[in-house]
Amino acid sequence: MNESGTSLQDLRNEIDAIDAEMHGLIMRRAALVERIRMVKARDSVTTVRPGREADIMRALAARHDSNFPFPAIARIWREIIANITRMEMPEYAVAVYPGAETPGCWDLARDQFGSATPMTAFGSAREVLGEVSAKNAAVGVLPCPREGDNDPWWINLAVQDGLRVSYRLPFSPRIAAQGGENRLEAFAVGRIVLEESANDRSLIVIETGEALSRAGLSTLLDKAQITGQPIASHNGGGWYYLIEADGFFANDDPRLEELAKLAAVARCIVVGAYATPLDETEISKAAS
């Protein structure tokens, strides 16, 4: 027994009480699923809410004030969110293209969508997009596009009512992985209604008749008062540029209308919007 009169058993009893309380709260949260499902059906609210998920995680980060590592907290909450989603939507499943050079995409998908969520790996981005289009999977996870990719899968999103990018992974800082894979990033696509969160970025595909330099693209964006930068480009019967823009864009955004009016632009379309991933500075104390 220590000087304060507290024994190790006393402390263990307190831990057991906390564990029981935490378990009880998780069960209470799960018990709300049927009521939530009924309200969402009544109000035509989608089950998967990337913007709300991001705001929940940001709130956790803002109040985290402990030496307990925040990446572990984030994993716990992602498991809760993912499994509550599966309770609301039993058919929820994820298709993943790990990529020959980016096998860590599988781990990013598991971190985000939960250890119990059915997940299947496919040999190409095209197969993943096909699975999601056919509704065999609710979400598809693909490596972030890079300049010079052999398979610029993002071109397939540049159609009306197509699949849309709704997550950029990882959203929260990860516990370091072997081989530096903690730096890997991926996009998640689905037929998910894009919704605004507290801090967002959008993906815009711009089609032009002629090739443009980065400076030329920057000039176009400036004229439309859009702040953004190119991620990748592709020449396929026309020139296509994937732009990551600051802020949340809908297809009827006036800035897109201004962009579409420019002589160099054949068309432009929003192909995704997602919550900006957490930065280390947004976490109060996240000891490793």
Layout of helices and strands:
Blueprint lengths: L7 H24 L1 H11 L6 H14 L1 E2 L3 H19 L5 E3 L8 H9 L5 E3 L3 H9 L5 E5 L20 E6 L16 E5 L9 E9 L5 H10 L4 E8 L3 E8 L7 H8 L3 E11 L9 E2 L2
Parallel strand pairs: 1-11, 2-3, 2-4
Antiparallel strand pairs: 4-6, 5-6, 7-9, 7-10, 8-9
Helix pairs in contact: 3-4
Order of secondary-structure elements:
HHHEHEHEHEEEEHEEHEE
State the strand order across the main sheet. 3-2-4-6-5
The total strand number stands at: 11
Give the CA-based shape. Answer: elongated
CATH superfamily of the largest domain: Periplasmic binding protein-like II
The level 1 CATH classification of the largest domain is Alpha Beta
- Which architecture of the largest domain would the CATH scheme give at its second level? 3-Layer(aba) Sandwich
What structural category characterises the helix and strand content? alpha/beta
Number of helices: 8
Name the poorly predicted regions: 178-182
Strand share of the residues?
A: 15-25%
Largest sheet: 5 strands, mixed
CATH topology of the largest domain: D-Maltodextrin-Binding Protein, domain 2
End-to-end span in angstroms?
31 Å
Overall description:
The protein is an alpha/beta fold. The chain has 3 domains: 11-42; 86-198, Periplasmic binding protein-like II (D-Maltodextrin-Binding Protein, domain 2), CATH 3.40.190; 200-275, 2-Layer Sandwich (Alpha-Beta Plaits). 36% of the residues lie in helices and 22% in strands. The protein has 8 helices and 11 strands. It has helices spanning 8-31, 33-43, 50-63, 70-88, 105-113, 125-133, 214-223, 254-261; strands at 65-66, 94-96, 119-121, 139-143, 164-169, 186-190, 200-208, 228-235, 239-246, 265-275, 285-286. Strands 3-2-4-6-5 form a 5-stranded mixed β-sheet, with helices on both faces. A 4-stranded antiparallel β-sheet has the order 8-9-7-10. α5 (105-113) links the parallel β2 and β3 (119-121). Residues 178-182 have low confidence and may be disordered.
